[in-house]
Amino acid sequence: MTTLSIPDMSCGHCKAAVEAAIQKLDPIASVQIDLANRRAEISSFQPVEAMIKALAGVGFPAQTV
Prior knowledge:
65 residues; alpha+beta; globular; 25% strand
């Protein structure tokens, strides 16, 4: 499980965009979003760097917690 801080994620649309970016990278990934704390918990076999790059590509810079 990887926890990412995504400071620019603040609404339902943001949540959907983050989930879609991760699911495009890894269709079987599990993504749990915590909007209040602007974090995502992701279970995926993809490297963390790939997830961060995918999120940055859709406008949501992220970093590991």
